[in-house]
Amino acid sequence: MDILGAEGARALVRAAAEADPDSIAAGQRMRREFPPDLAAAALTQVALRRRARAKLPQAERLFLTPHGLEQATRWPVAQWRAELFRDAGVSALWDLGCGLGVDAMAFAEAGLRVCAVEADPTTAAFARANLQGTTAEVITGLAEEVELPPGAGVFLDPARRTARGRTWDVSQFTPPWSLVEHHLDGDWHTCVKLGPGLPKELIPDDVAAVWVSVAGDVVEVSLWNFLDPGPRAVVMRGGRVHTLLPGAEPLPVGELGEWIHEPDNAVIRAGLVAEAAPHAHLLAASVAYLTSDAPLASPFATDYKVLEVLENDTATLRHWVKAHRVGSLEIKRRAIDVDPAVLRRQLRPRGENHATLILARTTEGARAVVVERQG
Predict the structure, then answer these.
(1) How far is CA 160 from CA 2, 48, 95, 107, 157, in A?
(2) 338-373: per-residue pLDDT in tens?
(3) Start-end of H helices in 177-313
(4) Hey, which bits of the chain come out as E strands?
């Protein structure tokens, strides 16, 4: 593949000098020095690497594809996963459907012997280049044709995209869902990475389901057959990993206090709202806003100081916004039938001040709560 050779390396250096690798002018300049296909491939790689910077710190040296980058694991999550395998005593791991090799890279860095398997020849070639200098081996082939020894580590990240887009039709997954079930039920240390919107009816009762968020963004749910069964939330903030396990009693509903607490979305997806704030109470039944008279200062929830409580009607809110010269307005809501973007236009924010509104059901009915975020 030309982009992986010496001429490709020269084209990548040249393309990296372009301020906008997607522009027509960049393409014209590149084609003066390189064949059209190589010029286009180098510009595409540079554009993808720039997009990948926030996700992968080593992006500038990786070979990427659009779909591969979309599915690639964020680096802190890949490292966290590799540590769990290592801590479970796994020494050899098979990455079945390795994509671009990001997780395999983390497994190898954690000291595991890695065999990465990828069906698509181009993606496998990119993975091989990305894993150069590590102990990982890349095989081009089908994950379902690999025979594994008992007790080995297995990682699967099934592709969930068809020609029509993302799908939760498991019959469309690659590798197939039957392979996922086979390895989760077998004698292997198995982890399966899936999208955070996984329908809960697809989660077997005897596995751990771990929802992971990075800086507030829920990025995946993973299924593990060698962790204690049940839901977990893993929240990564400020370079630290925080894990929340089940076990709290359900929270009661109570009156609005001096603080509102918004659980991390990984906590909500895992159904661990009570575990995130066992001494708080709910603003309303089945709504993931909590309240108390003190900040939680917890990695599992964001604290908002209550400044003012308003009637939840457009005229009242428009008057408040105007009176307080609010030009930058954040609107948050749960279980309230309103489009924040539409409401923001109706409130006509103008001025030099910022405000945050939380629209929520309370014991007194629907209210608009003016809050100030802490931390």
Answers:
(1) 29, 20, 17, 23, 9
(2) 999 999 999 999 999 999 999 999 999 999 999 999
(3) 177-185, 265-270, 273-276
(4) 92-96, 113-118, 137-140, 153-156, 161-162, 165-166, 189-194, 208-214, 217-224, 230-237, 240-244, 259-263, 281-282, 290-292, 301-311, 326-333, 353-362, 365-374
* Both structure tokens of 178: 């039957």
The pLDDT tens digits of the residues spanning 266-319 come to: 999 999 999 999 999 999 998 999 999 999 999 999 999 999 999 999 999 999
CA–CA dist 106, 86 (Å, integer): 11
Residue 103: pLDDT band (50, 70, 90) is: very high
Q: Tokens 């929830």 identify what position?
A: 301
Query: E strand or H helix at 322, and its extent?
Result: helix 314-323
pLDDT tens by residue, 113-135: 999 999 999 999 999 999 999 99
Q: Domains, the chain, ranges and CATH?
A: 6-53 (no CATH), 69-241 (3.40.50.150), 259-373 (no CATH)
